[in-house]
Amino acid sequence: MSLVGKDIKYESNAFKTIGVLTSGGDAPGMNAAIRAVVRAGIFHGFRVMGIRKGYNGLIYGDVTEMTLRSVSDIIHRGGTILQTARSPLFKTEEGLEKAMSMVKIFGIEVLVVIGGDGTFRGAMDLSKLGMPVVGIPGTIDNDIGCTEYTIGFDTALNTVQDAIDKIRDTAYSHERCSVLEVMGRHAGHIAISVGISGGAEVVVLPEYKADIETDVIKPLIECRNRGKRHYVVIVAEGGGSAVEISDIIEKKTGIESRATILGHIQRGGSPTVRDRVTASLMGVRAVELLKEGRVNRLVAMTAGKITDIDIKEAMEIKKEMDLKLISIGKILAL
Ligand code: ADP
């Protein structure tokens, strides 16, 4: 019987042993979420097993019991102490079967997965095989439709903002255009936010196919004609290449232009207060769901509050770009 669907409810206290893993891209705050799951889990009488390296660890049995002290001194650390991996094998029938046999070996009755969209799709596959799951959204991209916030987003934004401020200093001194490529995979949520906080002249988003002449070159020339002498252009990685766009800007406008690809620096670092608190609250909520026997759900944030939603329903929600942010960004770049 498929366990995906609404109103899946076990008896309260039906589970005794939780498995917890982090999967996909790491995000600052994942450690705070692990800590919350372990501490709240033990507080509520669960045994908590830590699974290392995401679904790979589940397949190969890289599992150890967590204690109150195994999550000491991690709330301020980026990355994930459980480590993470991308597991192509897990996407196959063979991989799923191996994972299912391993949860039985370790007596894991319910799984808490911390990760992004791919991680939740994998969790849904497990739930279809009868493994109850609860997901916590952890990705710097903030690209999960069912939640307005994902753990790691704020820290990544602040890292990018720090870089923009530094680059702006040198762009000003040399009267240059700085083109910064930021992460976000197929989503432009990081790009649009730092576009506003960093005062960018132009933001190139994957959600809209940019026309280089009308969407990049023309606004930069207009800015120059209004008296600007240095420029910041943000390119979301899914929206184009900073190097190519920078070359075109220099050729077409004569403005000296430099590209910077921030890369994995955006995934590291000590989590901000927002990420630590959100991760802690989401981790506790996940354990509360397990205690109540409510599974196959994702913890989410709605209107600033911690909520939860059926996983299948959640995965059908597409995250929309906030159009208001785009129009505000354009006005403030004048
Ligand atoms: P994220 O969770 O950050 O989106 P990935 O997309 O890399 O990261 O997914 C993490 C892992 O989840 C993958 O390595 C794979 O094992 C599993 N996974 C990803 N996509 C799917 C899918 N469509 N179906 C089943 N499992 C998936």
Q: How is this structure best described in words?
A:
- This protein is α/β, with parallel strands linked by helices.
- The chain folds into two domains: 2-152 and 271-315, Rossmann fold (3-Layer(aba) Sandwich), CATH 3.40.50.450; 154-267, Phosphofructokinase domain (Rossmann fold), CATH 3.40.50.460.
- The protein contains eleven helices and eleven strands.
- It has a seven-stranded mixed sheet with strand order 3-2-1-4-5-10-11, sandwiched between helices. Strands 7-8-6-9 form a four-stranded parallel sheet, with helices on both faces.
- Strand 4 (110-115), helix 4 and strand 5 (133-137) form a beta-alpha-beta unit.
- The mean pLDDT is 95.
Topology:
Layout lengths: L16 E6 L7 H14 L3 E5 L2 H7 L2 E3 L27 H13 L4 E6 L1 H12 L4 E5 L15 H22 L2 E6 L6 H9 L4 E3 L7 H14 L5 E6 L5 H12 L3 E5 L11 H20 L4 E6 L2 E6 H5 L7 H10 L2
Parallel strand pairs: 1-2, 1-4, 4-5, 5-10, 6-8, 6-9, 7-8
Antiparallel strand pairs: 2-3, 10-11
Helix pairs in contact: 1-9, 2-3, 5-6, 6-11, 7-8
The chain binds adenosine-5'-diphosphate (ADP).
